[in-house]
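Lab notebook, page 48
Experiment: co-folding of the full assembly
Goal: obtain a model of how the components sit together before planning crosslinking
Operator: M.T.
Materials (sequences as entered):
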Amino acid sequence: MAPDGAGECGGSCRRTKAAHAGAGAVAGFLVCLLLVWAIGGCGRSGCGGLAKTEEMVGQFNLSSSQLQELASLLSLSEKRECMGKSGLISDGNQVNSMTCISDTPCTGDRISGGNKNWLTDVIFEDLCTIQDKYDKSAPALLENKLLQNVIHQGIGSPIQRNVHQCDLCAGISGLNVDQNIVSSSNQTVVFYLSALFGTIIISIVQAICKRGKKSNQLCHDEKLLQIPSAKAGRKWSKRAVFVGVLVGLCISICIFSSMYADVVARRKENLVNMCDERARMLQDQFNVSMNHVHALAILVSTFHHGKNPSAIDQRTFEDFTARTTFERPLMSGVAYALKVLHSERELFEQQHGWKIKKMEAGDQSLVHDYNPEKLEPSPVQDEYAPVIFSQETVKHIISVDMLSGKEDCDNILRSRATGKGALTSPFKLLKSNHLGVVLTYTVYKYDLPPNATPEERIDATLGYLGASFDVPSLVDKLLEQLASKQKIVVKLYDTTNHTSPIKMYGADFTMSGDLHISSIDFGDPTRKHEMHCGFKHEPPLPWSAITISTAVAIIVLLVGHIIYATLNSLEKAEDNYRVMRELKGRAEAADVAKSQVPSTSSNVLLYFDVLSPVFYLFSSSAERLLLALQFLATVSHEIRTPMNGVLGMLQMLMDTELDTTQQDFVVTAQESGKVLINLINEVLDLAKIESGRVELEAVPFDVRDILDNVISLFSEKSQTKGIELAVLVSDQVPVVLIGDPWRFRQIITNLVGNSMKFTERGHIFIQVHLVAELNRTRNVLDDVSAQNREIINDPETFMPCNTLSGLQVADNWKSLKNFKMFKYLNDAMDTVNLVVTIEDTGIGITKDAQTRIFTPFMQADSSTSRTYGGTGIGLSITKCLVELMGGEVGFTSNPGVGSTFSFTAVFKKSTAFCKENKPSPGDIKRYCSEPTPSDFHGMSALIVDGRCTRAEITIYHLRRLGIQCDIADTSESGFSALLDNSSKRSPNMVLIDKDAWGEGSGLAFYRRFVDLRLNGTHKSSQATPKIFLLGCSISPTESDYLRLTGYGDFIRKPLRLSTIAACFRKAFGVGITRQHHKDQSLVLRSVLTGKQILVVDDNAVNRKVAAGALKKYGAIVTCVESGNDAITMLQPPHTFDACFMDVQMPEMDGFEATRLIRAVEREINDMIQTGKVSVQSYSDKAHWHVPILAMTADVIQATFEGCIQCGMDGYVSKPFEEQQLYSAVAHFLEIDATDSVS
Amino acid sequence: FNGAAHLVRADDSDAATNRRRRPAPPGYLDEQFSQVEDLQDETSPNFTEEVVSLFFKDSTRLMTNIEQTMEKYPRDFSRWDAHVQQLKGSCSSIGASRMKNECTSFRNSCGAGNIESCMRSLQKVKGEHAALRQKLESYFQLLRQAGPAGMAIRHGGM
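Observation: model returned without errors.
Model output:
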């Protein structure tokens, strides 16, 4: 209906002023309506008249901001429209429209009745549809707030669309009206369009923003979506969008047609106007000329016939007519012919002196050829009409009988009969050859009454005044005065004879398109003339109509597309949200996790929040997770690099002098950094594992060594926490396995770290067994270490829980039972199936958290992570790794009691390897750090401990050292074993736990032992055994007591081979104090023993110390204190094997001295070579080159190149470091280190 | 023989033990001293004491040298520096860490050409020197007193 209305409106506007007023009313109405609306939208309306608007607001459930937006939108375009037409809107109309608004009902009936305004109808219909739509969805809306949001979004777009339609309509009407009234230029149109488009785009962008915000809120909202209703809403709104676009396209077509019609009509009208104007002008001109001819006729009758003698002769007439030519612009000439009867002919001819001549018919000769003398005399006739006077231009017709010409004759006869001017039909004028008409007036003897009969008139006739019109030139002249003659083609016809009109004027142009005919009255009723006008050119294409309608179509399509896209993206977002929900729901449903799993679901959400834009691009959840991990891995890698820099700098900062607070800050910062790096590494690891890029190594390694390593990692932590940390590897586990030691270690480290985090008291106990072994016994603790020891059992000290710390632990067997490896034991010859259990007495995992602890980023609950920290990836990494190794991981946990994690792993048996036979020592050295010290082989030990589990651990370590173990689980049995002289072998050592039977009981045992010793009750020839106390910590007084009494020592837990061995070495004086330096010390000794070494240093202390150090390795040291002395000493021949030279010395520094020494040596070498001196005089040495090593306190200053340049062989730092001394000495003394080791 | 070093460390309020982990507060002695102690054996039973007494003799001489040089050549920092360098070498040889640190800052002051802070450093070095001498003397005193018993303990295991 809109286009029809537009057409109507446009038409009426164009035609009538009343319609102008109508258009004004439309505009005014709209403006006012929107004003009201805007006020209502702002929510500030207190006015009663606006109540309905408010009601509308309520009904539409439009947010005030939306309404405001709408209002501003509309008012924007309307304002412009208004500005365009401000002159046209009359006050009355405004008042009218105001009244219209004041009772604007939503239904719009009254409005359409009272005001035939299509625009109003459109708007209100739109609004009403909105309301209808709303009503339909209203029940759903009320269900809950969230739903409301969704649906609101759903209907948001139709509202928007309708708004745009209104806007569009308004804009279009504005355009139409504008164009019609002001004959608008294209520029204004373009301006309007762009403004319209801009407002639409802005509104859409705002809508999208709002939507995005809402979807964000949606994501944060915990409540579940009611998807179906939202979906329905969207479906509905999509359909509405399609309908809207179709309507918009129709509108654009209608706009085009109406505008085109308008253009055509205007063209036609234009033509009519022009044609009429021309015809009228021609007619007027002609009439003026005719009147003048009439006047001339009267002049002739008055002065020629009325006077006697005549006042006019040819000359006078000529003069007069020439001077009055301007009065007759259309006439080429006038002449006067006298009526001469045949009877009077002779007299007349005599009077004038010439014969009446006949007009030659069909004479086509030109003017200058025309000679009246040549003309034939007129034949005899009743009367003649010879021309007696003529204007200069037609002088040639003087004496020609006008009645002899056919046209003239007719004309003359008609003229004298009617008494009016008569026109000939167009004919070719004499001489000029132009088409022309001749006008003839009759001159009468006296004034005749108007009703005189023709006979009377003929009688009264005296003569005839003729005037010729040269039509083409005259019309040309006339048209030239008018504008736009190029556009228009004019043709003039004589249509007296209807069947064959005679063309009087006009080019041979074919007229294009429309033709307009206007009749012309030249004052001769018997003749009819017509003027035909038409446009020279085809009408141009209606560009404005085309552009406007196209623009409208484009806008409609664009708006449609935008809305559609918005709907789609919303749908997508909601889908994604739903998927997320499902995932989260699944995670929560699965909801079980150990409290020890370090992370929270909120962490997951955090990650997803961060990554959500990326996630939305991917539909499948698995893909998303993988993407997240990849993203994290990439980011982590980028973080790691600068983080290392930070840590390094912090370390350096710590080495500077800081006060306590600063120190504390730096330490904290560094620890945090380390934690961060750790986390990043974990993430990287997980990503690597998840993406399947981890390949397991297959190298020989020692399980026990790996476990010792793990223990050492956690020893400090366990000591500070006061937790017992212990490891026990079954005897049956082979020494060397083939597998991936790093990954194996990582698994154990993760699990132990996890346990460590959640355990505050008690113990953490790592056990490694063969699967077969466990399967056989089904009881780990009872039967593991059955062989090779006697249990001195005392039933009185029965422990309620036979565990490491005496605390209850979770039963491990439950989880183990489910392992495939236990069910289907595959005892292949070359594989070793290990089962590792890590038992702790931590806080345990709640039942519901137990299923999700291996999920990445999951911790038992958020409170756990708050208390204990951690990322929660450790366990999932562990799980992946275990599975990679072909094993399984499982756990049992009792909240409040503790948890036991176990995993199985498959390794290859090393066939070639055994301890004694090492085919590639270099290889195994990498993975089996140090060969187990064999210094203690054959020793025996008594382990006194109340807890057999703990005792077993001690035994495990001692047996690795090759120490035979006995066990006593009470102090009495211990003493009896110790003091029993009859025993065939007394133990070399006694190991007793500090808390063997309770707090401090171990020490008590020791005290008692010492007392026994000092009191002399126990005097035995045998050497007193060393007593070692095992414990996590020892107070200084206890430590002093132990040392001073001289019998005991303390071994700090957790036990591992190297600590025990080191302690034993110290106690028994076996080996060299620093075990790890043993090899080098030996080599140094072997290298330096008996060597003569010169030490050059100006500083007495330095000299002394250096000499002492070298002497320690068996060197014979000579000291000098200056460079000059050194040169003297080193003058060949000498017996020195090497020289250590201080670099910085007064007078002559080390470099200078060396240079001089080398010079001397060179000289002597040359002399020997050339035979100037005998070799014998230089101790039979043909080549002298004493190794000189620089000693410097400043390692940075002493570059190797610098030393070499001046002839030195190397440098050592001062004071000596064994390692460096070794490498320097070994290098230049060229003694194969490996030889000396073996 | 580690026992002696332990005692010294105990005397020095456990600073030396912590030295490796935490640089501050620096003890009077560092690792190097126990290395020197390690050099002592049957062939040279009083090696440590000899070295220490040598150190004190030498360092006293060096410090006097420094003082004289500073008076004689008031602005010849490079000359001062050479002397301080010698002192520093001695310190590092026996592991007198605090003195060594003072020497380092002394040298820095010399490098910066700051007479004021050189003077301050000199006083500080002197102070450290005196403190160290006192500590070590009492230590050796203690060692001598505990000698037989300590020896007994130490040699018990051998």
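Interpretation: The radius of gyration of chain B is 17 Å.
Next step: discuss with group before ordering constructs.
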